[in-house]
Amino acid sequence: MIPFAILSGKIKTKTDEKEIRILELSPDYFTFRLLKEQAKKYAQQLSDAGQQGNIVLSFFQFQKRSYHEVILDCTKDIVKIELMPQKQMEGLVCEIRVDIKNEEYRIYTERFNKEYLKYIYLKLDETEADMSQALVGYPAEKEQTYSDTLKKQRAAWPQVPDETKKSLAERVDGIELDNPAWYQAYLSKPLKDFISLYWESSGWIDMDLCKIAWRVPKYFYIGNAYCLHLFPKKTQLEAMLEKTWGDHIFPVCVFAPVEEKDLIKIEEILKLLSDWCQNKCVKIELVINDWGMAGLIRKKYPNQFLLTLGCLLSKQRRDTRMNYVNRNDSEFSKEKSHVDAPFYRQYLAKHFNITRVSFQNSGIDQSFFTPDSMIGMTLHFPYFQMNTSGWCPLLAMLYRGSRGRQKAVDDCHCECMTYAFEYPDFLCMTGRYNSIFGYNDSIRIEKEGVRLVAGFLNTPLKNDSAKGTKL
User: Which residue ranges of the chain lie beneath pLDDT 70?
Assistant: First the structure.
């Protein structure tokens, strides 16, 4: 059976449409398999000249990295349709052979068979990197270039000019405090010293230039969007809320996806936040990355919080490795998501009281945002999430020797403060916490009103030498 991703088929008649999986492919014929009753039905429909049916085959072109459709007219291109009952499953399924006489079909079939055969040989004889190099031009020779620490790796990635960094730093509205090291640093230092430490630890901007950015931002994003174990402890959270209140900063609590076993913990946190808001006569902003939590808040705490749709739910993702497969930066920038639809934004605002949507600086255009779009926009930079595991692959690698051997843990010791997954420098990606992130500090903000939030996936400067585990 030929993989559906590289060759797919579809039967179209006047009254019906059916996807098919191709079993054999030849310049003169192809075969596919259906349930016996379906096979008889479609064979009869395609053989009936009055039906005006056709078969559409989508060939993946390895060199062009795109698909090409060949449409076969049943009255002109199909010579014969023959049912071939399979002996081993005669009562259930039936194989159908379709004889073809069409020049376009013959050309693309021969080309496809050559390219697919080449792919099979490469898969058997070469490493994955060498195979990718032969097929899509992936630079396999760069795979052995790693940096010793995350700080050195960030320095090796492409950067925007210093003047651009300076202008970005001047307009940052918020910063991310996404791990216990930053919670402790904020609680133990005066505000100005903490802000200085934050930018110095970023490794993103030159020390002289970053002095301009040492103004106090309006928002502190407290919590981790990907791992609930990195959310502050109850006493830490209470202390941080009080300190932000005294520092005249708006706290924003960020929540990761919630498992069933964590519901009691989440309800306790929400109760704490609700009581704090009532005492201060304010509404706190919560970033949610789980629809179940959105429903819980709507049910138990209606109109008590300002809700922001998190990056995991806005679903505008990119993988830095996709440039070597079938897309380029200009194509990525044109991508849309469901949040672009006005009716969907209205639904979010009406049913869940969503007031903002979070995006990451993945290079995808967020052109939907307008001042009258009912929902505000938050843009996180310079990292963007590429993949997140439900359980921690870092713990699996450290304690079980394979990132695939993941298990749920109740008490996490936050080894991600010390270790991270390394990737080759040229890919501009890193494995941090339970996720993989890409890096992009080139930002296009064409509209006013966008809240810019900086987050560097790091720890305070004295600890920011995380050891890498190469993949």
Answer: 45-52, 85-91, 206-214, 317, 323-337, 363-373, 444-448, 461-471
Say whether the peptide bond before residue 302 is cis (omega within 30 degrees of 0): no
- The answer to whether residues 238 and 368 belong to one domain is yes
Phi and psi at residue 27, to the nearest 5°: -60, -15
Please indicate, yes or no, whether residues 154 and 236 belong to a single structural domain of this protein.
Answer: yes
pTM of the model: 0.78
Domain end (from 60, 87, 112): 112
In this structure, which amino acid lies at residue 354? Answer: I
Cα–Cα distance between 261 and 439 in angstroms, integer?
33
Same domain, 205 and 325: yes
Q: What phi and psi values does residue 135 have, to the nearest 5 degrees?
A: -90, -40
* Cβ atoms of residues 420 and 392 within 8 Å: no
343 CB contacts (<8 Å, ≥6 apart)? none
How many Cα atoms within 13 Å fall on the side-chain side of residue 108? Answer: 23
pLDDT of residue 464: 47
Residues 248, 367: one domain? Answer: yes
Give the model's pLDDT for residue 268. 94
- Lookup: tokens for 87: 């002996």
Residues 433 and 333 in one domain: yes
**Could you tell me how far CA 283 lies from the centroid of its own chain?**
30
> Cα-flanking dihedrals φ and ψ of residue 262, to 5°?
-100, 5
In this structure, what token pair is assigned to residue 337? 């998501």
How far, in Å, CA of 292 to CA of 290, rounded? 5
Handedness of CA 251, 257, 179, 379 (dihedral sign): negative
Residue 239 counted as domain residue = yes
Closest of 171, 175, 216, 177 to residue 193, by C-alpha: 216
